[in-house]
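Re: folding output
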Amino acid sequence: GSNAFALERQGLGLLFGFPADRLSILVGKNLGVIALRLPALIAVSLATLVVDGPGFVPAIAAVVLLTQVLAAAADNYLSILFPFPVAAAGRDPGAPVSGTRGLGAAAMTLLATMGTLVASAPFVFLAWLPELLGERWLFALTLPLALGGSAAVYFMTTSGAARLLERREPELVARMAGED
């Protein structure tokens, strides 16, 4: 749930006021989060290079990237269905705010994490299939298929989240601003 809308309190009303497609807003939000997670992808790739050599780096990088993409899609639903208010300007952002995420939201975050793992499992299997078959040259075929498949699932789920966002937009903005 780190991919939330509530990090922009007053800017959110302005963002939703623009005549921008909600799908493009969600994709932009997700691209920003994935860009911020690129150092983790690089660190895992470097660790793979040191531990096992260059043979597995593309497969590991593909698995990490496709899992990040599917996690961003799940986070879209969390940020729309379970928004949390942020502190008003001039208030301590670390102070408790009424209506923040609690135990129920933690359970939903766990559920979204498990859903991400389930959704990414076929693509992870596809990415590792050449190693299981002992034919590493197949990585050239399976890695693009795994990344493409996860991208397709991402766009299907994000399109659904965009439709949900359009329906819940006024309520979402009011809840994040702490108005209800």
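--- second protein (sequence, then structure) ---
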Amino acid sequence: ILYGVRKMRDTKLNLKSFLLIGVGGSGCSAVKNFYKKDKSIPILLIDTDSESLASVENDKVFPVGSSVTNGLSCGGDVELGRQSIEKEASKLRSIFSNKDILLIVCGLGGGAATGITPVLARVSREVNTQSLFLVSLPFAFEGKQRMEISEDAIRRMRSNADAVVQLPNERLK
């Protein structure tokens, strides 16, 4: 990711038309680590857990679901993640409408990212913004249910996303 984004910057592409988005705990963590290395890249962190959004400037965070989760995680409940983001769809439309490309990073299998990402795909399609999803899949030892939840989210994303790149955690072994 870092190489590709730097290449875009080096070729003088307009990075204001690009947005790197971290969703859920693992996605926010990955994007925060990336941002520490290169603060010139526009980012947005989306999560229900207010703790995962800490240590980043307020204009780069998009907390969702405060009325649903009270600033806590979804606890693996995909429906809570979906409900949290649906209430913010109009705000997302205004953020996405002036972007050309969204690169959305997340880890599937939990509640927040698994519920949020299909909605992000739909909203980006509604405003004609291209979206690329980079998603990590659960380890096999996390159980078949987490993998099925992830696969369901990918199916829902694909109907609206321009591309979904899957990174199985099993390959990390």
